[in-house]
Amino acid sequence: MSTDRILLDPDAPDNMRLTLSEATALALDALCGLGYTRQDADIIADHLIDSALCGYPFAGLPRLIAIAGNRRAHEQSTPIKIAHETPASALIDGGNNVGYLAAHRGATVAIEKARFCGLAAVGVYNSYYSGRGAYYVEMMVRAGLIVVHAASAQTRVVPPGAAEPILGTNPLCFGFPTRAEPVIFDMGTASMMGGEISMHALLGNLLPPGIAFDAAGSPTRDPKKALEGGVAAFGEHKGYGLALSVQALGLLAGAAIARGSVRDYAYFFLAIDPGIMGAMQSFEEQMTRLVNEIKGARLQPDADEVRIPFERASRERQRRRQEGIVVPRKIVEAIKKIADRRDSSKN
C-alpha cells in the first residue's frame, strides 16, 4: 500500500480496511450462507464490490444485510424467464429473485436486442433490490449503447403535502459512450436512498434535518423512525415529478403484474445503438468533443476542474483497488454472522 499520499478513505478505530480479495471473499461467504449458487453469488458480489470501489459504501457490502433481512428473500423463487418478447423488446419475469440477478439478466437481454435491432426496450418485474443503476448502465454503455434505465422501488418517498410514503426512491440513470470513459449520470429521486438510511440506523447516526418523516408524518432525524415512515423527494416538486415518472416507467416494465400493486419494484431499460441515427461518425466522437469542451471551460478562482458525471467514481475505483475498501467494523461483524449460517448448517 502506498504511503506517499493521503489515503482516499482514512482509517479509524471503528473501521476495517479490506483488500479487494478479502472483501470479495466476505461477500461470497455471506451470499453462499444465504443459499445462493456460486454463479449467482459471483454476479451479486461483483456488483456490491464495484459499488464500494466507486465510493458508495451504503450500496456495497452493507446491502448483504438488507438482502438477508428482506422478507421476499425467504419466499419461494423460480427461474428468471422471458414472459413476452418481440425482436426489439422483452418483458422478463424475475421469479422473485433479487434484482442484482434479475436486472443483470434484463441488461444482458437489452444489449443483445439493441445489437440486433438498433434499439431495445426491456422490462423486468417480480423482483426486488436491484442495487446501483450505474453498474448495469456502464455494462451496456461499454457495449457501445446509449442507455436510459429507471427502477421503481419499495415505497419510501413522501410526496409534497402527503403524510405517508407513496412512491419509491426510484433511481434514474443515463449512459453515453465516448472515445474514453463513459458518461453516466445516476441519481435517486429521493432525498436519501433507502440503503443509506438503513446504514445510518445500523451505525446509530442521525439523518440530516429536513429530509425524513416518522410513521405519523412528522419530521424526524432518527433513521429507525424514518424507516417506519419515509423521506422527502429531492428538490421538492422536481424530484417528486421524476419519482412519479419513474414509477410510470415501472408500470411499463411490469411492476403491477406479480402482485397487482401499481407501486412495486420493476426495472426498465432503453438501449439505443447510436448508429441507427445515421453514420456512427459519430456519436462517440461528438460526445468526446462535448466532454472535452466542458472540461475546458473557464474555471472559478477556487475551482480545480469541471467534473463530468461518473468521473469521480471511475477515479476512486482505481485508487480503492490499490488502497482497499474501508467498512465499519459493525458491518463486517454482521456480514460474518450471515456467512456463519452456511457453516452451522453443515454441522
Topology-level CATH name of the domain at 80-190 and 233-277: Ribosomal Protein S8, Chain: A, domain 1
Annotation field: number of helices: 11
CATH superfamily of the domain at 80-190 and 233-277: Malate/L-lactate/L-sulpholactate dehydrogenase, NADPH binding domain
Order of helical and strand elements: EHHHEEHEHEEEEEHEEHEHEHHEH
Strand content: 15-25%
CATH level-1 class of the domain at 80-190 and 233-277? Alpha Beta
What's the gyration radius in Å? 20 Å
CATH architectural label of the domain at 80-190 and 233-277: 2-Layer Sandwich
* Helix percentage range: 40-55%
Shape: globular
Distance between the termini: 39 Å
Q: Determine the oligomeric state from the structure.
A: single chain
Question: What would you say this structure looks like, in words?
Answer:
The model has no long low-confidence stretch (mean pLDDT 94). Helices cover 41% and strands 20% of the residues. The strands form 3 sheets. A 7-stranded mixed β-sheet has the order 2-3-4-13-5-8-9, sandwiched between helices. A 5-stranded mixed β-sheet has the order 7-6-12-10-11. Strands 1-14 form a two-stranded antiparallel sheet. Among the domains are: 15-69 and 324-346, Orthogonal Bundle (Hypothetical Oxidoreductase Yiak, Chain: A, domain 1); 80-190 and 233-277, 2-Layer Sandwich (Ribosomal Protein S8, Chain: A, domain 1), CATH 3.30.1370. With 347 residues, it is an alpha+beta fold. The protein starts with 14 loop residues before the first strand and ends with a helix. The protein is globular.
